[in-house]
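Hi R.,

Here's the chain you asked about this morning:
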Amino acid sequence: MKHILISLLLISVFAFLPNAAFAETPTVFFTKDITPEGLMAIYNKLGREAEGKVAVKLSTGEAGNTHYLSPNLIGDLVKKVNGTIVECNTAYGGSRSETAMHKQVAEDHGFTKIAKVDILDEEGEISLPVKNGKHLKEDVVGSHFKNYDFVLVLTHFKGHAMGGFGGAIKNISIGFASPRGKVIIHTAGTKDSGSIWYDKQDDFLESMAEAAKAVSDSLDNGKKIMYISVMNHLSVDCDCDGNPAAPDMHDIGILGSLDPVALDQACVDLVYKAPDGNSLIKRMESRHGIHTLEHAAEIGFGSREYNLVNID
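And the predicted structure, written out as tokens:
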């Protein structure tokens, strides 16, 4: 009888704990093999099939940039999932601020040779709800977003002038946002037009996390999305920079996870472990980049704890 009472007491206590208390620590898979075969191996390890009409979210890279993911590297995987490469126009000018120019850059960079390219905001925008956001009520994305059943997020991990680093969360927050949506994120919901520059850095970083979660929530609460990040050409500058700094550290590998927070955290940790990561570490710390992951974990988007599994 005593054992039964203890069991009932424990059940009653655990019933009030958040679901995260029972969640398994997410797995992040890793390979040093930065080849089409290595990329495919990471995809296969994730154990989730990209099905239906598949959007492959990546950065097509600003004109003049050569650090973006090579079509030769990703082509086999994009074809395997019968994916359409998707992007949105920028809010800072440059060569990708209008659809016609953006499509030309995508062609110049070789992406149209491996798949169709869809500029999601070519015909307007739609709003995704942000649940319990600290700053955002909505995430404004390209209207073609609704045409896809599944998203494969292919990210080139690198530095970023505003966010400190550009990882999976940046790729689906700012990356999926229309130009107006980008302004909303950058200014933490305080305006929807004009300059993207904003003086409250942590608010901007938190807004990225909230917008990314809105994208995931809209895809069957994260069941219709998966994440792979390539750690090569590790410049302190983003692929959105037409004249980026040359990388001054070695390539690291390819990582994949179903948890974008865990994936970004693993990439950050590998930079800190690298003997030549000082420049990128300085860039991340100067922008307080880790706060994006802190807020993402706080709002239940994912876990900063993870198990790193080397598949080599």
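Confidence is low (pLDDT under 50) at residues 1-22.

Let me know if you need anything else.
M.
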